[in-house]
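ARCHIVE CARD
Drawer: 12
Card no.: 0347
Subject: one protein chain, sequence and derived structure
Cross-reference: see card 0346
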Amino acid sequence: MNGQPGFEPVFCTIVPPHALDALARAEDPALARAARRTLERDAYERTRRRLTTVIGAPALARAAGAPRNQPNRTVCDAGHQQDLPGRKVRGEGDEPGQDATVNRAYAGLGATFELFLQAYARDSINGDGLPLDATVHFGEDYNNAFWNGEQMVFGDGDGEIFLDFTLPVDVIGHELAHGVTQYTANLTYFGQPGALNESVSDVFGSLIKQYTLGQTAQEADWLIGAGLLAPRVTGVALRSMKAPGTAYDDDVLGKDPQPATMDDYVRTGRDNGGVHINSGIPNHAFHLVATALGGHAWERAGQIWYDVLTGGELGSQALFADFAALTVSAARARYGEGEEVQAVLKAWEGVKVRVAQTPEKPERQRAS
């Protein structure tokens, strides 16, 4: 927790509840058992996070004497238990060990730190050198990874549906990006603001992957969690930003429910009002902007999204239309009247989101 009044870090997982619900109903008892254990643990962590926001948590800050603009990573091993943070197995500057999961987590934390520093001059996820902590080998057959407001946690997967959650670097980036949102716009984790929260994490998770691989927008696969699904699953990833709704279609896992436009917006009380589902719409808008502009997506397209997230005008209750309006304003402010503004306008038109005339203001501004 960042210690700033009004900021409420939330419990955010990479695998949405609807996917785990489907697995919990599987005929194979081993699959169902692992999914149910994961859902139970997620519910516990969600409740714990809610209580922490009420009673408060120790403020996290740059370690004393830690240099600026350099990562400060710690990876711990839970040993398949569920006590956090677990046993420390690698600290900043330590040589790689024999555990590939530990090494991937360490590298993923570093890749996330580097993208935000090099592309946006942001010193860690809070902008002030916040230590990056992660725990691996969490639980038994735990089918998720999450940011709990203070650290990253990775399960090993059940090996049947999900593999090791440190395998895709965009999963690591996605979860840490929830921390960036926590320290900036603090988007409410419900309905459209929650879907924007999830989408922002997908955007920067994908950018971290692209930055690490040196890919252009045209070269990128725009998949979230590619390599996470086990071979038996009919699918390629958890989500597709290029073609929402096409990431998987599996007899056990179900079909990817994400819409690509507002025509198919899903109204539901589950999944915090469909935060992992309707995020497909702003995800697709970003993909359209990035591919229209070409080159490296973290540069112009990513810069516009980053400017909106950190600019102080994005309200915690912002709707898609509010966010869209701010991206237009941000593009115009940084690049003037040119192809960037036109790409943004065309993208939101493409996903059928109306650009609001007066974007939602932050809570602190509305209250004044």
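Annotation on reverse: The beta strands are 12-13, 73-77, 87-91, 132-136, 145-147, 152-154, 223-224, 239-240, 249-250, 254-255. Residues 29-55 form the longest helix (27 residues).
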